[in-house]
Amino acid sequence: MKPQVEIYDTTLRDGSQGEGINFSVADKLRIAEKLDAFGVHYIEGGWPGSNPKDIEFFAQAKKRKFKNAKLAAFGSTRKKGVPVEQDDQVRLLIEAETPVVTIFGKTSMLHVKEVLRCTPEENLAMIGDTVKFLKDHGKFVIYDAEHCFDGYKLDPEYAVATWQAAEKAGADFIVLCDTNGGCLPGEVAVITKAAVGKLNCKVGIHTHDDIGLGAANALAALDAGAVHVQGTINGFGERTGNCNLTSVIPCIALKLKKTCVPAKSLPKLKELSQFVDEIANSRHNPRQPWVGSSAFAHKGGAHVNAVQKLTASYEHIDPALVGNQRTVLISDLAGRSNIVIKAQELGFKLTNETPELKAILNRVKELENQGYEFEAAEGSLALLIGKALKHREPPFRVDAYHVSMRRDAKESICEATVKVRVKNETHQTVAEGDGPVNALDKALRRALAKFFPSLRRICLTDYKVRILPSRRTDLLKTARDANKNKLGKFYEGFTDAANSLIAKESGTAAKTRVLIESSDGKREWGTVGVSENIIEASLQALVDSMKFALLKT
Ligand SMILES: [Zn+2]
After folding, report:
1. How far is ligand 1, taken at its centre, from the CA of residue 17, in Å?
2. Alpha carbon of 376 to those of 15, 199, 277: distances in Å?
3. Is the pTM here over 0.85, yes or no?
4. β pairing state of 6-9 and 42-46
5. 444: CA distance to ligand 1 center in Å?
6. Residue 392: which H helix or E strand, with range?
7. Ligand 1 centroid, distance to 178 Cα (angstroms)
8. Would you list the DSSP string of 314-353?
9. Cys-Cys with 400: which of 146, 303, 419, 529 at CB 3.0–4.6 Å?
10. What span, in angstroms and rounded, lies between the C-alpha atoms of 58 and 48?
């Protein structure tokens, strides 16, 4: 059945234009697969005309099968004064070989005159020619009307003419864009209603969050007749970001009660949000609506008491509906069902009744306390579950390793030695590398190749490091602040002691989390390691990656 509202994700294109966001091709493929599994309807993979990385992404994505989502390439209308078939940027859109192509064009007379500097007629021709050319090449064409609301406010007649030029040329969707992100929901509603009235084809909405109303504006447009929403996971995007899909999706499903992504995906929303943050190497925002760790945290005594009696007293929904949990009532339930869903995705036969479930949950919690994150490290999680279910013994062990670095006048050289054990046999190899982790990776792979030739195919595609604040420091800070009133005159003494411990801890005991992404050319997986020593953390993640590859083959 067709959903009432379609979700168009542009995390990989508009989202990656956000400050501090930088996705590798491997990152993009992993996110695309995750979005597809979640059930968004379109994934905008990039702008092939703007950078070679996006061309490479589409070349790789072509080889994948997406179950739910259609892949879209993004670009613009042809240049002024150039026949569409001679426009390189448009040619690259065809060469991306995606079923969907999204192009943006100018709605605003101000932009036509001052930025594009062409006649209003030429702009209409640019829109019509490009849409028709793409339709003639068999594409599903989404037309993004840039500066749509600002343009309409300036010159409504011309704005409508630009949309109609796209419609007449065969566009499948006209998407109204609040490109500068400064419109109010009331304006968006009125103009969307006008567009729906003037057009026969379906209307979508693309908003930005410059005044904190990205999601509100998208909902206003849906109310006025739009049936397609563009946005990004966690609201990534230029300036203050795009419309946040992690807010809009649950609003559509749980507040407007309209169908969009599959109902079974909604409890995976928090996981999707954390996954994308992990891949972007950014900290998950605790205050993020719906999916943040504080979204259902109750601190005030009266609130806690009331929530214990009646959860609805201070909660707008049951947090489990979006995969979140309340943080006062320590309930195993949400954690349990998350693990069960994840384990089933990884191919394990695990249910709420499996006796090992409690042990798995305890182990995950214990490791998370130590700083591990499993959202983007499904390889490590699979090994943990496999071990608890006693499926099989680990295929190998690292008995010993050694890493050294030396530097002479010309270059620095890292060398690693790794000794592995498979059943009763051991094998030791040495390798040099560009850095300690590269040397370790090479030595480990070389040692294992003797026993498992298939591991030669595996390559390391990305390596991310995060310094974690010491857990003990956090606990000390909490204790120091919580005891302020109770301790009275002893408070200062306690504070001094706590502060000196905190100062000591923060210098030395910081832990490092390493996230490694690996690929065998067909799929990617992540593994994680945590230690106070970065080399040790890296080795853990490398070993998990190899073990996971062997688990699957
Ligand atoms: Zn945008």
Report:
1. 9
2. 18, 43, 9
3. no
4. parallel
5. 44
6. none
7. 8
8. S-SS-GGGGT---SSS--HHHHHHHHHHHHHHTT----TT
9. 419
10. 8
DSSP calls for 273-330: HHHHHHHTT----TT-TTTSTTTT---SHHHHHHHHH-GGGS-SS-GGGGT---SSS-
Gap from CA of 531 to ligand 1 centroid (Å):
40
Specify the DSSP class assigned to residue 242. Answer: B
Query: For residue 539, with 0-12 CB atoms within 10 Å meaning exposed, 13-18 middle and 19 or more buried, which class applies?
Result: buried
Q: How confident is the model at residue 484 (pLDDT cuts 50, 70, 90)?
A: low
What is the Å distance from ligand 1's center to 181 Cα? 9
CA of 255 to the centre of ligand 1 (A): 25
Quick one: average pLDDT of 107-116? Answer: 93
Distance from Cα 253 to the centre of ligand 1, integer Å: 23
Report whether pLDDT(243) > 80. yes
If we measure between CA atoms, which residue out of 121, 165, 161, 158 comes closest to residue 143?
Answer: 165
Please give the distance, rounded to the nearest whole angstrom, from the Cα atom of residue 74 to the centre of ligand 1. 11
pLDDT higher than 80, residue 108: yes
Residue linked to tokens 């613009």? 76
Amino acid at 464: K
In the reported structure, the alpha carbon of residue 179 is separated from the centroid of ligand 1 by a whole-number distance in angstroms of 6
Write out the residues surrounding ion ligand 1, Cβ under 5 A. 14
